[in-house]
Specification:
This protein has 10 helices and 12 strands. Strands 1-3-2-4-11-5-12 form a 7-stranded mixed β-sheet. It has a 5-stranded mixed β-sheet with strand order 8-7-9-6-10, with helices on both faces.
Length: 317
């Protein structure tokens, strides 16, 4: 992994914008109140990042919660956040016990709030994935330089494949991400980026490889209308993490329960539907290059403040 590219990218993350703490569908209610965590009256709160279709993720999350209850005897409440930052902040506030965190979100949550890694996602036998830069076929872009002056959509400020690594890629090729595009926006999810590019709302965008498949059932011609221009370097996969202070006994129970679910046919199908997961592994060292990038820059992961929604993209236009 090229740490220097991560160093370059991290310079552009010093201004990471934090969202307000609202969630999709289910109110925050972590198992930290009166009574023993994991009971019916005090369920463990499990929150998912909104990387794809939030309704699909919520339905899958609720199924994971049900399967975990069967495996562990504990009770869970699943929810989907409206931003990657919301999951980090909710875990830091002790309002969420278990977070399904994107790669950079995990690093932020670990450095800022001391969350613990439970498991790392495995996809098709690999603990790594990569990002990609897409363009509308009508734009005629074949290389990164062809996107100069175009409009561009990132996923979320705390998205690794949809923000951090694509910016690192641009920087490594000699392009300043702050001035290279005529306008940039945060679409909120990988699916939203793909659809924005397909519809011509933006000329190009950044997602994980290959996010087009997630919408191909509804848009069979997506692979013709949206073309891949470039790929990023390998990225450590996303994680299942727990808040600081969760008891060691609960952590081990959760870990073993999730691993059993990942090996069960029904559980495996559910994990694949939610985030394309094919397995879960117990690893942490894969995130060291991201930490090193931040430390080399003296990057303060915990003090960045996100402006009001109306000012969200003001510094990137």
């Amino acid at each position: 992994m090229n740490t220097q590219r991560l160093v370059d990218a991290a310079r552009f993350l010093a201004f990471i914008l934090w969202g307000s703490l609202f969630v999709f569908a289910v109110p925050l209610s972590a198992g930290t109140g009166d009574g023993k965590p994991g009971t019916q009256k005090n369920p463990l709160s499990m929150m998912f990042v909104p990387s794809g279709d939030s309704q699909v993720i919520l339905e899958g999350g609720e199924e994971i919660a049900r399967l975990l209850q069967i495996e562990t005897g504990l009770h869970f409440k699943a929810s989907v956040a409206t931003s990657y930052a919301a999951v980090v902040e909710a875990m830091g506030a002790g309002k969420v016990d278990i977070g399904w965190l994107a790669t950079f979100s995990y690093v932020l949550a670990r450095e800022k709030y001391g969350v613990d890694l439970l498991l790392i996602v495995d996809r098709f036998g690999s603990p790594f994935y990569r990002g990609q830069i897409l363009a509308n076929a009508g734009v005629g872009a074949e290389r990164l330089k062809d996107l100069k002056g175009k409009t561009f959509a990132f996923v979320d400020p705390a998205s690794t494949s949809g923000h951090l690594y694509p910016k690192a890629l641009l920087k490594s090729k000699g392009f300043d991400p702050e001035t290279f595009f005529s306008k940039t926006v945060f679409a909120g999810s990988h699916n939203a980026v793909v659809l924005s590019v397909m519809r011509g709302e933006v000329d190009a965008g950044a997602t994980y490889d290959d996010a087009r498949a997630a919408v191909a059932k509804s848009y069979p011609d997506i692979f013709k209308k949206v073309r891949v221009v470039a790929y990023t370097k390998d990225i450590p996969n996303d994680t299942v993490s727990v808040r600081k202070g969760l008891s060691p006994t609960l952590k081990e129970t959760l870990k073993s329960g999730l691993i059993r679910i990942s090996k069960d046919p029904k559980g495996s199908r559910t994990l694949k539907r939610v985030y394309g997961i094919t397995g879960l592994k117990d690893l942490d060292a894969f995130f060291d290059p991201v930490r090193q990038a931040g430390r080399l820059l003296d990057l303060d992961f915990g003090l960045s403040a996100r402006p009001a929604p109306g000012q969200r993209d003001a510094g990137l236009n």
